[in-house]
Every structure is written in structure tokens, then in C-alpha cells.
Amino acid sequence: MRDATEALIVIDVQNDFCPGGALPVEEGDAVIPGINAAMEDFATVIRTQDWHTPGHSSFASSHDGRAPFDEIEMPYGPQVLWPDHCVQDTPGAAFHPDLRDVGAVVRKGFRPDIDSYSAFFENDHETPTGLHEMLRAGGIEAVTLVGLALDYCVAWSALDAAALGYRVTVPAALSRAIDLRGSRAAMLDRMAAAGVTVL
Fold this sequence. Notes:
The chain has helices at 32-39, 131-137, 150-163, 183-193, and strands at 6-11, 44-50, 71-74, 77-80, 104-108, 142-148, 167-170, 175-176, 197-198. It has 199 residues and is α/β, with parallel strands linked by helices. The protein has a single domain (6-53, 85-198), classed as 3-Layer(aba) Sandwich (Rossmann fold). Strands 1, 2, 5, 6, 7, 8 and 9 form a 7-stranded parallel beta sheet that branches. Pathway: Cofactor biosynthesis; nicotinate biosynthesis; nicotinate from nicotinamide: step 1/1. Keywords: Hydrolase, Metal-binding, Pyridine nucleotide biosynthesis. Residues 7-198 form the Isochorismatase-like domain. Belongs to the isochorismatase family.
């Protein structure tokens, strides 16, 4: 068992991000057995859940003439437009059935006008999700981040965690990437530069 000051953060292991889903990450479901095993090593486990409103502003379908994976400017900065995914109370937003039902759940991306990659902040980098406060209240000093997708929600969570002063580890074997326009390599470099330990 890990030290009580360490937490495992399981990012967005949801049906829509797994094969057959609306925004599938290649081999996204392959990480689940390893994540389930890792859960046994941590006293504190928190799962995050992408939880979008219908017609969310990050969906390509909400922008006339736009296609999935186009990039636009939003008031908070650049935004990739995604296929409709992880809509609240739909099967796609549910956790993958093989993922162990362990730990607290933090929902993100539920504000209709702003996306949320990071488990700590919405994409404006200001609006908190409540995760940081939860971890601090539990005396957590180090986080291990696993799940989907490595180059988006996992990486942005890792960067924010490092900026907030946590010791951060990302075991790449327990994550998979979308790799949109070289995003996997770019975000691995950014995490390393921020002091994140990528295994």
C-alpha cells in the first residue's frame, strides 16, 4: 500500500472514450485491468467523469460549418471541437463497466460554455473543479494520474497538479493517447519540462 499522502486519480475511463464509443481512444479499454490493480495500492482513489450538457460548446455539432477536430478560438483560448460525447446521463458518459467502482467521483465539463480537460480546472485555467480542495483536505501531497486520454485530460491534469505543488507521476502504460496532430509527443515533452515523472 502506498503512503497515505499519495492518491490515484483515474481520468475519464468512460464508455465514449473506449472502443465503440463516440470519441474512442485506440485501445482505451486495454488500460482498465492495470488501473484496477493500481487501485488496490492507494488508500485514496478519485475518478473523474467528463459530464457535458447536450449541445456543449466544445461539440463540433454546436458550430455551423465545423467538423470534429477543427480548432477554433473561444473566449478562454484555443479549443478543439469534438464529436458529441459524454453527454450527461447517457450510456456513453458512464464509467466503463469493467472499471472498479472505487473512490470519490469528480465531474468536469458540465458548464455548457467551457470545456474541461484538466481534473483540477476548466479550460479557462481559473474555474476549479473541486479536486484540489478535496486532495488538500485529505492531506495528499503526491498524485499518480492514469486513464484517458494521455495527451489531453491526463496531461492537462498532470500539468495543473505540478503547478499546484503536487509530486506528479504518469505511468504511460496505464494511459492511451488520441495523438491529434502530434499531441502525444508534444504533451509528453510539456509534462517532462514541468517536472512530471512519466514512467
